[in-house]
Design goal:
By secondary structure, the chain is of the alpha+beta class. It is built from 3 helices and 5 strands. It has a 5-stranded antiparallel β-sheet. The longest helix has 21 residues. The structure holds adenosine monophosphate. Adenosine monophosphate (AMP) binds next to loops.
Length: about 130
């Protein structure tokens, strides 16, 4: 079981931003910016492009709903989307609130936010997602 499967199953704690029966969204533990969120399928697949066409379409729609919620909570120009998957072998989309192109540079130093702030951000996104 991948670390992200354990997170989606609630076996490892996470800052949950949104979920349904097929997908789970949670804050990146080492965010590039406040509100940096990961979207995963509950089905464990390493490479995102090994998901079926239908899963990819549903995942993108789910990610769009999460991105809209993020944008209501985190002031930003747009929410950017990226897929890397070089570290964790469980398909995931990065949603990153951007002020500028620089915010999408994965070589940037990562933030370390207090857990209370991470929880508050996740709670606010979840509230908007469910609105
Ligand atoms: P990549 O696989 O290259 O897309 O990067 C994996 C991302 O997952 C990184 O941005 C990590 O900070 C993030 N990450 C790894 N473990 C956790 C975790 N337990 N909770 C939240 N985010 C994580």
């Amino acid at each position: 079981m991948s670390i992200f499967s354990k997170i989606a199953a609630g076996e490892i704690p996470s800052y949950c931003c949104a979920s349904n029966e097929e997908f789970y969204a949670f804050l990146d533990i080492n965010p590039m910016v406040k509100g940096h969120t990961l979207v995963i399928p509950r089905r464990e697949v390493d490479y995102i492009f090994d998901l079926t066409d239908e899963e990819l379409a549903r995942m993108q729609v789910f990610a769009a709903h999460v991105a809209r919620a993020i944008k209501k909570v985190i002031p930003c120009v747009k929410v950017g989307e990226a897929v890397l998957g070089l570290e964790v072998p469980h398909a995931h989309i990065h949603l990153i609130p951007m002020q500028s192109e620089r915010d999408m540079l994965f070589s940037n130093p990562k933030l370390s936010l207090p857990s209370e702030e991470m929880q508050a951000i996740a709670d606010a996104i979840r509230k908007e997602f469910n609105a």
